[in-house]
Design goal:
Helix content is 47%, strand content 13%. It has 126 residues and is of the alpha/beta class.
Length: 126
């Protein structure tokens, strides 16, 4: 299975946060799955750090090595992702989440998220 992890899921996974379900953890750690994090999520994290809304338990630059060790691949966005984004209905207003949804649609990835607004789009939500 190929999964795209929402920003909050990555942060909760890194923190061992109890809000992350055992199923989500199992899917992320399943070596038969391919796990991606959108470059949009990394952009969102960087912005939240710069505004003081988020503190990581590691320096931001160490996040790249962390993702590599956990076999989480960074998914860059493409013109096709942005084309899909430009046509998405505004069920969800968060620009980062909208790009994540667009990428999932384009690549036919399932998304790990608790954001119920994702269900309003043609994506599989775990």
């Amino acid at each position: 299975m190929t999964l795209l992890v929402d920003t909050h899921v990555l942060l909760w996974y890194m923190e061992n946060n109890s809000r992350l379900s055992a199923k989500a953890i199992s899917e992320i750690e399943n070596r038969n799955s391919t796990i991606f994090i959108s470059k949009a999520s990394l952009w969102e994290i960087a912005i939240k750090i710069s505004t003081g809304k988020l503190q990581l338990t590691m320096p931001f630059l160490e996040l790249e090595n962390y993702l590599s060790k956990k076999l989480i691949h960074v998914l860059d966005f493409s013109f096709r992702d942005l084309e899909i984004l430009s046509q998405l209905p505004f069920h969800h207003n968060d620009p980062f989440d909208r790009l994540i949804i667009s990428q999932a649609i384009n690549h036919n990835f399932s998304i790990i998220s608790i954001d119920q607004k994702f269900k309003l789009y043609p994506v599989q939500l775990l």
